[in-house]
Give the backbone structure.
Amino acid sequence: MEDTIHSNKTEGLATSRATSKVGSSHERGGSTLDNIKSTVAEKLYSAADTLQQKAGQTNQPDSTMATYGTQASEWLNRSADYIRDMDVNKVKSDVQNEVKRNPGRSLLIATAAGLVLGAIFRRR
């Protein structure tokens, strides 16, 4: 009988842990988005490091290619910082406000983006 009580307590504990995990993942809400942001930022940092190394390996450090490589590496690092620190809700509200202020322009931009994406995916 004591084993049955212990097993019921253990099962209840496991169930409450599973429930709390599900609840916490819903409370976090943006965990998947946070993972995507982290992944994209890490890829950008990696590309910036690779580009910086390649720019440093040129035979002439003062060359135009080394300068452009260093500048592109800095841009990639700043882009990674922006993506990592970006607040999605603020971006969403900014886009909504812009659409409300300029609905015609927003519609034209959306149409152009749709046409470009359609052309890209149609070619594949």
About this structure: The first helix runs from residue 2 to 28. The radius of gyration is 25 Å.
